[in-house]
Every structure is written in structure tokens, then in C-alpha cells.
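Running this now, will post back.
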Amino acid sequence: MSGLVDVHDNHGAVYESRGGRQVVAEYGRAARTHTAVRNAAGAIEMAYDVLVITGEDRIEYVDNAISNRVPNTDGQGVYALLLDPQGWIRTDMYVYNAGERLLVFLPPGNGDELATEWREKTFIQDVEITEATEEFAIFGVHGAKATEKIASVFVEQTPEKRLSFVRGGMGDTGVSVIRTDGLTGEEGYEIVCAASEAQDVFDTLVNRGLNAAPFGYRTWHSLTLEAGTPLFETELQEEVPNNLGLRNAVDFEKGCFVGQEVVSRVENRGRATKNLIGLSTEEVPETDASVFEGEETVGAVTRGVDSPTLEQPIALALVDQDIAKTLDDASLTVRIDGEEYAATGVELPFVDGSDESERLPSY
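Update: finished.
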């Protein structure tokens, strides 16, 4: 975290570990906080690892490594994947063009390894890669009134295009405000500032202008699950993008990148052996709980939650493609604590909010 332990403690924070880093799990009353975000706005400290890429060849270098095109224009960003030669997802990331440098936001715990790997492969290219996680603080603001919240404290107009950003001020603090890709199913922004300014920015987001409820990663998981958003730790890691329908993460027409031959062949673009689906269940299933069609195992749960919005258990699961295409006719069950419970396929997203997640599966 960005030195906000005392601030989070004052809000009653409970912590958990993600990627070797301590993050806020919740501030108590997670279901009530979830509802507050759905109806108004909430603020969360995001646990990204951050790389800073400089040098004349920075755009070409990163573009050749990842699955999507690095934007050439200052103030624009892209969501992308780093794949292995077999097309499996090693990590996902956001890459932002910040003028003379690129900023790369990664899941926690991936920054050091990727920075070391990329430095070893620069050869004669003019590229410098710095692991700079401790230099930045990044906060998410999400909810039906997130745009109103940002407008109440940000001196510039909020960005309209997804994954674009605008530089400006919040009070006396310089920040960049990014329009997110709607992972919670609601309007969303990320605010980037120097780590030394984190306390002032967090206070502004929670207490100034339109108030925003502070929330942690348990609420983040329930919000994104209701929105049908696959996340790195639970759905993406060691999967292939074809199975997840992540068409927003792959540019099929760009030049060569590791894993391209597997995911970009014409015959593979619309083909997946499994599909990501939603399930309504009688009890909350654990991650990796088996999904059955009759006596046959057809897939596994990636994560489940007791939905605060729907007031019932829901889950995401990867199941055989032929089952996913005939959900209305499938008789599914999920094994929970050694017993099988009925499960019903649900079209994603589970909940319609003020925005729609860019990661909704598209097959």
C-alpha cells in the first residue's frame, strides 16, 4: 500500500495479501458497502505493480511483446495480455502512453519479474525499464454516480473514452484521471498520483465533494462477479484468451507477439474448448468446485459469491463449449462440500449497471 495504513485503520480496515502485498479486504459491512457503490460511488486503493518504460524504442519494444497495440498518442491506454508460446496467459496489464514514457499497470507481484525479463531482452534497443510501484498511488472510483463524484473534485472535464486519461488537479494535488473499462459494471475512474500525495487524494475521494464509500477487495470481487468480469487471479491466470472470450485484449491484425500463432490463427479466433458462463446456485461454491451435466464433469467454478444485489449465490465457471451453447437444455449441478446442488446457467452480466464491462465474454 502507499503508506495509508493509519488512514485505512481509522476506517476499520481488515487486510489480506495479494501478490505478496497487503491490501484492504474490507472495512466491515461488505454487503452494505457493495450496495452503496452500486447506488452511488465508492473508492478503493488499487494494488497494481507499476513499470515505467522510457527510451526512443519504448513503444515498439512493448508492442512487440503484448497482445494489443500500444497507443502512439499521449493520454491513451490499452488493455493487453502477455502470453507464453502456447498462448497461455502469463499476466494481463494496462499500458498508458504518458508522453515521454509508458506506464504499465500489472497485477500485484508481477512487476519485478517482468521488469527483469524485459531488461534482459532489450539488446541494442533504446529502452529503460524501471519498477516504480512505490512511486505511485492509484485509486479506483466506481458506481452509478462515479462521474458526478469525480466532477465534484476534479478541475478538468472527466475523460469520456475508455482507457483515456486527463491530467489536472484535485485541490492542490496534481493527478491523472483515467476512464476505466467498466469492470464493476458501473461508471469507473482511476486516479493516479505520487505516493507522497496519497493521503490527500484518498481524503478528497472519500470526504470532499460528493462522498464516496471506501471499499476493499472483497467488495471489488463481488462487484466484478456481478458484472461478469473475468479477473487475472481467478479466471485469466494460466488460461487462454480464446476460452475467456477476451476479444478486447487481443488485436488479431497486429504484428508478431509471443503466443500469436496460437490465438490469432483464423481457425482459432472464434474457437474455444471452454466458455466462461454465469451460474445461479443454491449455495456459494468454492473455487474449482466441479460442474456436472448428469454424471459427467463438464467444467469448474472459478469463483462464487453471495450476491448482495441479487440476494442469492452466483458464480462464474469455465465449462465445455457445447454445454455453454445449450445452457437452456442443460441439467447442471455443482459439487459443494461433497454434495451436489442444482445450478442454472445465467447470461452475463448478472446485474445491469450504469456501464458494461469491456471484459464480458465475446465468442
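The chain has one domain: 1-273. More later if anyone needs it.
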